[in-house]
Amino acid sequence: MIAEGSLILFLGFAVLLALGAPLAVALGVAGTAVILIEGLGIMSVPTNAYNGIAKYPLLALPVFVLAGMMFERAGVAVRIVRFASAVVGKRRGAQGIVAILVCMFLGGISGSGAADAAAVAMVMIPSMLKQGYPKEFSATLIAAAGSTAILIPPSVALIVYSVLVPSASVPALFAGGVIPGIMAGLALILPTLYLSWKYGWGLDDGEETPKFWDSFKEAIWGLLAPVIILGGLRTGIFTPTEAAVVAAFYGFFVGVFVYRTLSMRKVYEVLVESAEISAVVMLIISLAGVFAHAGSTLGAFDAFAKLLLGFTSNEALMLTMITIMLLIAGMLLDAVSVYLVFLPILLPIMAIYKWDPVWFGIIMTMNMAIGQFTPPMAVNLMVTTRIAGVTMESTVRWAMWMVAAMLLSLFLVTAFPQLALWLPQSLGY
User: Fold this and answer.
1) DSSP per residue over 168-185, as a string?
2) Please, are residues 304 and 2 in contact by the beta-carbon 8 Å criterion?
3) Tens digit of each residue's pLDDT (9 = 90 or more) over 141-164
4) 274 vs 268: CA distance, rounded Å
5) CA of 288: how far to CAs of 28, 337, 343, in Å?
6) How far is CA 102 from the centre of its chain?
7) CA–CA separation, 10 and 21 (whole Å)
8) Gap between the Cα atoms of 355 and 47, Å rounded
């Protein structure tokens, strides 16, 4: 029963994906087919589809998506770019560093790598082109820097992880992602500076550097957003879900009344688009509940975990195998999808080795971040290459530099768990 059901479950899922079926359809159809064939009770399908999304932490997900889009459309990115340019000044690699810093900062507002990369690419690629940066490099760098958004809180991906792993709370995961997220972003500065000096990028484009205080006053409303969100969480003024609502209303206030870049028509468009994005994510999570129920009832996930454990009992080698598997998966799927597909398999292994769930969640998320800008199916890179008007293939030579830099950060966090655990432990999470 286990062998037959597992074959139907995993092979059916893989075949449907290969045929181009949406992820939600592949998860739901494969899981339902196993439940029907193996007689696991067809009424479990609607029950588990509902239970998959009937979780309190998931209330924050659509609202953080809305908040991120509010800030993106409000013109916050443009003003923060000007401020970062004033801070960094003009020198070799300066515009590349500005792009990285702005992506990291906006990641503390949007929680979405693709949205972060899109907002920064629209502003930065034209100005980087003026200073001699190739479009292919610019698109790759912004895609890589944008991937830090799923590490730096508030992260939509970490919210989903907390739902699937209840022992890891949202505040603990948010705190755990801060240092690794900053490390991942700063690591990208190394290849940026090296390549800028090597190829002579960052020459003076004739434009005046923004004045510090003027740009600071323009950007202050955007700069305050992470302070309000994370400060409110830390002081206990509001929960992660309430923080999402505060962020959305704050973005609305800034866009409509301060910068006056959001008309009521644009607000309506933001509401519609964010609802569509959230609905897709929720549908995937819902039908993943059916897939997970089928696999766990069969014992397929435990069997797969035992298969992995059969290769080695060495903890370091097991972590390496999992990392390679997640890196490959991250190239093909987004972070939320990878969690839903792989966590049921990896949780038994995590329990055997007694890995801290917060640390393991950060490790998984760092793998997903690298996958977001690694060809051939990199989500962030698809967005930035479209904006830059270049092909995915042309970015490969630059992507390898960024992948190497982030892998260094991943290795350090894997080897030294306190890099991810020190802050949540210090804050008492």
Assistant:
1) S-HHHHHHHHHHHHHHHH
2) no
3) 999 998 898 898 878 888 889 988
4) 10
5) 7, 9, 11
6) 16
7) 14
8) 31
